[in-house]
Write a structure and sequence with these properties.
CATH topology: Nitrilase/N-carbamoyl-D-aminoacid amidohydrolase
CATH architecture: 4-Layer Sandwich
Shape: globular
Largest sheet: 7 strands, mixed
GO molecular function: hydrolase activity, acting on carbon-nitrogen (but not peptide) bonds, in linear amides
Keywords: Hydrolase
Radius of gyration: 18 Å
Family: Belongs to the carbon-nitrogen hydrolase superfamily. NIT1/NIT2 family.
InterPro entries: C-N_Hydrolase, C-N_Hydrolase_sf, Nit1/2_C-N_Hydrolase, UPF0012_CS
Domain CN hydrolase: 5-252
Length: 278
């Protein structure tokens, strides 16, 4: 396992069409690689952001036919960097869609993929409402990928609100947690930094959280602020609200250091919940 990792989070403003989105993402990946990044993570919905099931179904393809998969494979091979290709909409055999994250190694091989487990079904103030489960099929497996820098636990956006997933990944061997996202502005302002720092602190992992930013289809807005967080909870890099990328040097020895000081991953205890006064 390499002791030092230069990691980047790419922040994009995805439109409704795949080709220009891939070009914009590819240009930023090359810039991040030129700046020294060895592992480059992109946001959720890196291929497109559209509102509504009909628009989604017009664009999705099976894994065998999806043009973004060979695009990112070729990009990883070209740059010699590991690439976490945010998420792509992948058509499944039952007619639903997986919100799927792919990890490509430096030779362009797809070494792991993860389907988002927790569906974003929420009703926010101001009439902002989402029903991810109307189109997408929840994943059923947590995924830990082996990299030259240690284990990488794959999660996606709304998963960040479920600590047990991140704890399970850390116990399985994760040293880094990836959380590509397209967070809304209201939830981002209230919760984004707190949740990601908490997941890092609870697990003693580095957290890479590349995010969408700006205004998208039908006025949907995303929060930005792609983050890289250290195992002790410090924010090492914050992309703010502009399209671009952030880079940080991760000293992987800090994972063991944080877990040695606070070994909470080894302190689980069984318990029962007692309801008093109900």
């Amino acid at each position: 396992m390499s002791a030092i990792l230069k990691a980047a989070c790419v922040q994009v403003n995805a439109g409704t069409e795949l080709e220009p989105n891939l070009k914009a993402a590819g240009d930023l990946v090359r810039r991040a690689r030129d700046a020294g990044a060895e592992l480059i993570a992109l946001p959720e919905n890196v291929g497109w952001i559209v509102q509504g099931r009909a628009k989604t179904m017009e664009r999705v393809r099976t894994a065998a036919e999806h043009p973004a998969i060979p695009f990112f494979s070729d990009l990883a091979r070209e740059t010699g960097a590991w690439i976490l290709a945010g998420t792509l909409g992948v058509l499944l055999e039952d007619g639903r869609v997986a919100n799927r994250s792919y990890l490509f190694d430096a030779q362009g091989r797809a070494v792991a993929h993860y389907d988002k487990i927790h569906m974003f079904d929420v009703d926010l103030k101001g009439g902002e409402s989402y029903r991810e489960s109307a189109t997408f099929r929840p994943g059923e497996h947590a995924v830990l990928a082996r990299t030259p820098w240690g284990g990488l636990g794959m999660t996606i956006c709304y998963d960040v609100r479920f600590p047990y997933l991140h704890r399970a990944l850390a116990k399985a061997g994760a040293d880094i947690l990836a959380s590509p996202a397209a967070f809304t502005v209201p939830t981002g302002r209230a919760h984004w930094h707190v949740l990601l720092r908490a997941r890092a602190i609870e697990t003693g992992c580095f957290v890479l959280a590349p995010a969408q930013t700006g205004t998208h289809d039908q006025g949907r807005q995303t929060y930005g602020h792609s983050l890289i967080v250290a195992p002790w909870g410090e924010v090492l890099a914050d992309a703010g609200e502009k399209v671009g990328f952030v880079l940080a040097e991760l000293d992987m020895a800090r994972v063991e250091e944080a877990r040695r000081m606070v070994p909470s991953l080894t302190h689980d205890r069984g318990f029962e919940t007692v309801r008093a006064g109900f």
